[in-house]
Amino acid sequence: MFFIIASSVLQCASEGFKVQSVEIGVFGTLAAVALIPRDDWITTEEVALAAGVDRTTISRWRQRELLPEPVLISGGRRGRSMRWPPDTAARALFLKQGLGFGYSFDDLRAALTDGTWRNGFRGVADQGT
């Protein structure tokens, strides 16, 4: 029973939220989890600014599965906003620079998928492109 509760809480934490409190109900079941957005996750505007591109470009790169899925946060009357993992800004900058250097989306996707993007363009060039 504890494992199920812990995995539910960990899943919430991995989806962009900090767990503020956990309430355990009768029979040891998970009754409620109070969640707040993680402070280290960034907005779409921050990702776009870091890469020097427009918000629509960030959206297109997400649709092409070049950026991770953001977490959608409801702001009530203020609408919805998205929060991105902290390394998304670096990924977006890598994409912009890579496209400027003439790499294809497939090359860049491969580097993002296997982690060689963290080595800069040396990692992409080592893949044989």
Mean pLDDT equals 75
State the secondary-structure class: alpha+beta
Residue share in helices? 40-55%
Note the quaternary state here. Answer: single chain
Overall geometry comes to elongated
Strand numbers in spatial order across the main sheet: 3-5-4
Question: Which spans have pLDDT < 50 for at least 5 consecutive residues?
Answer: 1-11
Distance between the termini: 50 Å
Largest sheet: 3 strands, antiparallel
Radius of gyration in whole Å, from Cα? 18 Å
User: Beta-strand percentage?
Assistant: 15-25%
Task: Give a count of the beta strands, DSSP E runs of length 2 or more.
Answer: 5
Q: Can you count the helices?
A: 6
* Order of helical and strand elements: HEEEHHEEHHH
Fill in the keyword field for this structure.
single chain, 129 residues, alpha+beta, 3-stranded antiparallel β-sheet, two-stranded antiparallel sheet, 5 strands, 45% helix, disordered N terminus
Account of the 3D structure:
The chain is of the alpha+beta class. The chain has 6 helices and 5 strands. The protein has helices spanning 2-14, 44-51, 55-63, 88-100, 105-114, 121-125, and strands spanning 17-24, 30-37, 42-43, 71-74, 80-84. The strands form 2 sheets. Strands 3-5-4 form a 3-stranded antiparallel sheet. Strands 1-2 form a two-stranded antiparallel ribbon. A hairpin with a 5-residue loop joins strand 1 (17-24) and strand 2. Helix 2 (44-51) packs parallel to helix 4 (88-100). It is elongated, with a radius of gyration of 18 Å. It starts with a helix and ends with a helix. The relative contact order is 0.12. The model is unreliable at 1-11 (pLDDT under 50).
